[in-house]
Amino acid sequence: MKKVLISAAVSTALLVGSAAVASAGAIELDGYLRTRGVIDKANTAKDSASNTYYDQKAAIGVKGKVSDEVTGYMRLETGTSNKDKYIWGGETNAELQAGGYKNDDSSMRLVQAWIDYKPSFWGVKVGHQPLALGEKLFFDHTKYGDDAINLYGDLAGTQFNLIGIKLQERQAYADGVATGSGNTNDVDAYVVNLSRVFGDSFTGGLNYTYLKGGTEDNNPITNPFPGMRMSNLGFDGKFKFGALNVTADFEKQFGTLKDDGTGLANTALAAHKLDAQGYAYQLTGDYAMGNSSVGLLYAVGSGDDNPNDTNNDTFVDFLSDVPYQVYIPGYRAGVPGAFGLGNGDVNGNDRFTGLSNLTVYQVNAKTETEFIKPLTLFGSLSYLQTTEDVNTNIGGTARMEDSLGTEIDLVATWKLTENLAYMVEAGYLFAGDAWKTAANNDPDNMYFLRHGLSLSF
Fold it and tell me: Which of 49, 312, 361, 422 sits at 20 to 30 Å (Cα–Cα) from 165?
């Protein structure tokens, strides 16, 4: 009887609590589960092996609609600071536990945590939130989010955002030793974003980003961009002409990428001062024919024509680990001579370099069909070059090359039920001469195959 009374009391408390929540506003839960198998060969070394594994992602989100003016949202997701998955069998804990089982290496972290207050034609969104600009050539942090204050609104049909982003907050350093709090190696971003719909056939946007870094810490590990005062100006537009859809995006960079104030005498130029002079542009066109479309894509991200001067002509991007124009260069393998800002790395050592020092010529096609269940197919053929030639330095002899090769990409998405999908992603790169090195005079082709189930609720 006591157990029955306790159960009844708990049930009553839950009902009362639910009623209280309902009276204050709506609570919504959402989630995501994904399991994938991967075969990945992102190494051009002769006879190099591929990497094979299964990974998994789990996410849960809670949204509270407190009133018509106030919304809060939190989202937890497996992964680390640079990936949203954990590997089956674990990556670091190699020992089996008692009984022969093994715990996974998953951990949960906040990828979103924000409050949105919108009292009128304007609103403010504060906290960790997904952000992106234009066609995502320069800045895309929708996957992991940023700590930001986002003032937004609509003025006579023009949407605007004024955003302050805290990208890095570190302690003050003296000779590499922490000495207390300060602004010596902080990195902040200030964004103005405008967009407007001009009738049914044209939408235009303009965005400006100012990146500011601290100056006192000259340690290249703790502060890779001392004295950063870099600007990125972007213009983007979407055009519709009957069945033809065209998108365009142009990005231009100026200001100082880094300057530690120590001068240039008897030192490597790149270690002290670099002025930002990169650019990127992309033009796409898709012609719809019923449930299908054919398209063209032309995209260019600048490279550096002279690494020995104080101008960084390479387009500097700030992207997440997702494929953009193609799957291999810029996603699974860093483009030679590229520059990924979020990693403080020059010369393509980071994989997620996007359009930096990359030129893409692509033809693609997409179709939707009914094959037992709805099936979407996308395929593309791309010819890829480095925008500026890179020195392959074969046998100690300088040899300039620009061919990255030809890539074929295929993506199939099979919608099994309303919220469950099976996806296959495949990319194969016939490697060009730009991948050659002193130890790799005959580069292997690279390939990528991933398939898996994803469930959203």
Answer: 312
Cα dist from 90 to 83, 93, 105, whole Å: 14, 6, 5
Greatest Cα pair distance in the chain: 89
**pLDDT at position 100:** 59
Separation CA 427–CA 431 (nearest Å): 12
Residues 6+ apart with CB under 8 A from 191: 131, 133, 161, 162, 163, 164, 165, 207, 208, 209, 210
What does the mean pLDDT of the chain come to? 83
Domain spanning 30-456: CATH 3.30.470.20 = no
Contact 360, 298 (CB under 8 A): yes
Q: What is the pLDDT of residues 94-126, one digit of tens each?
A: 565 566 555 666 678 899 999 999 999 999 999
Contact 69, 118 (CB under 8 A): yes
Quick one: CA torsion of 340, 247, 203, 125, rounded to 10 degrees? -30
Q: How far apart are CA 192 and CA 91, in angstroms?
A: 41
On the question of pLDDT at 203 being above 80, the answer is: yes
Q: Which two tokens stand for residue 254?
A: 């100026």
- Look-up of token digits 């930002």: 276
Amino acid in the structure at residue 200: D
> What letter represents residue 341's amino acid?
L
pLDDT level of residue 84 (50, 70, 90 thresholds):
confident
Q: Is 403 helix (H, G, I), strand (E, B) or coil?
A: strand
* pLDDT number for residue 2: 36
